[in-house]
Automatic annotation (TrEMBL):
One of its GO terms (molecular function) is fatty acyl-CoA hydrolase activity. The keyword Ribosomal protein does not apply. It holds the Pfam family 4HBT_2. This is Acyl-CoA thioesterase. It comes from Parvibium lacunae.
Length: 149
């Protein structure tokens, strides 16, 4: 499993506390919940560039995940504070994000993940082989504001 080594174009940080209902019988976070944590962090990053899921829908595109990787390093436990660093790695042809889940207090890396999404036109149901202009413009606008703002 190989994770991105490309520098992030946009970075977002999300904090959350592990709820009781996310635990498995061994009292650690069930593995599927790490992807849900990534979803929460991804939405935070998308809001940062002003292209969250409602804006995606309104622009006429769905963005299904076509690939995901998850590498478990250490367990997360009930009431543990997590910090998730989400990095936008690619956006011109697909939306590729990298995630690092840390213990918020000790900074111990718990999990790494990566997701890839592509645009699907709502009307034609066709996969887009390059990202829609709206996403490209949102990312460039955010980067320009950050660099010159």
């Amino acid at each position: 499993m190989k994770f991105a080594t490309t520098p992030a174009l946009v970075t977002s940080t999300t904090e959350l506390m592990v709820p009781f209902n996310d635990l498995d019988p061994l009292q650690i976070v069930w593995h599927g919940n790490y992807l849900r944590y990534c979803e929460i962090a991804r939405a935070d990053l998308l809001r940062k560039i002003d292209y969250d899921y409602p804006q995606m829908r309104d622009s006429g595109y769905a963005w299904p995940i076509i690939e995901c990787q998850l590498k478990y390093v250490a367990p997360a436990r009930y009431a543990q504070k997590l910090r998730i660093q989400t990095d936008l790695i690619e956006y011109e042809y697909r939306l590729r994000l990298s995630y690092k889940l840390f213990d918020a207090d000790s900074n111990q890396l718990l999990t790494r993940a990566e997701t890839i999404q592509v645009a699907i036109d709502f009307q034609t149901q066709e996969m887009q082989f390059s990202s829609p202009a709206i996403l490209i413009n949102k990312v460039k606008s955010w980067m320009n504001e950050t660099t010159h703002g």
